[in-house]
Amino acid sequence: MDIVIEAVETEPKQLRLTAAPAQIEVIYDLGRLAKEVVYDVSVRRVEDEIFLNGFLDFTLRYTCARCLTEYDEENRQPLDLILQLVPEEQVPTEEQDEFILVASNKKTYNLASHVRDVITLGLPLKPICREDCQGLCSQCGTNLNENNCDCHKERIDPRWDALKRISG
Ligand SMILES: [Zn+2]
Ligand SMILES: [Zn+2]
């Protein structure tokens, strides 16, 4: 997802930048990007600074941690960045946050790492398809949102077990 630096002007311009999931590389066990990420952004240049103000739209395809069913969740998150154009030798080698130093001789700047940060920050520890998800039966693996199974009926309540032993 590249911003073409030399095309940015003082007058704000509205751009729609897109990236395929493979370009963003979100690393997460229980989900992945389901489709293209879209960044609707207003860009403008003031002297040596480029301002990006916009929103990221992306869809995550999660695997429910309870029932293992896949489900999609659409997201819209703000993403504002400032690129400061500086001489090449001033650009740090490590990753940068909101305020980014970019070599002034570069023609484009890739936003992928910043997009990845926004998406990664919002990932849940345990995605759940819905609040009342019943999960899978621990004995037979039936998805209890869709079907019932007999496992629980057959299992003897341990309290009755104790009573039986007393009355033995
Ligand atoms: Zn579920
Ligand atoms: Zn069962």
Describe the protein.
This protein is of the alpha+beta class and 168 residues long. The chain has 2 domains: 132 residues, no CATH class; 35 residues, no CATH class. Helix content is 17%, strand content 38%. It contains 4 helices and 8 strands. Strands 2, 3, 4, 5, 6 and 7 form a 6-stranded mixed sheet that branches. It has a two-stranded antiparallel sheet with strand order 1-8. It starts with a strand and ends with a helix. The mean pLDDT is 89. One zinc ion binds next to loops.
Q: How is the secondary structure organized here?
A:
Elements: E1 2-4, E2 13-19, H1 21-24, E3 31-33, E4 37-46, E5 49-63, E6 70-86, E7 99-103, E8 108-110, H2 112-121, H3 151-154, H4 158-167
Parallel strand pairs: 6-7
Antiparallel strand pairs: 1-8, 2-4, 3-5, 4-5, 5-6
The protein binds zinc ion (2 copies).
Rg calculated over all Cα atoms = 25 Å
Q: Which molecules are bound besides the chains?
A: zinc ion
Total helix count?
4
Number of strands: 8
Q: How many domains is the backbone divided into?
A: 2
Content of β-strand: 35-45%
Written as H for each helix and E for each strand, in order along the chain, the element string is EEHEEEEEEHHH
Give the termini separation.
Answer: 73 Å
Largest sheet: 6 strands, mixed
Estimate the global geometry from the Cα principal axes: elongated
Structural class: alpha+beta
Helix percentage range: 10-25%
**Average pLDDT across residues?**
89
Low-confidence stretches: none
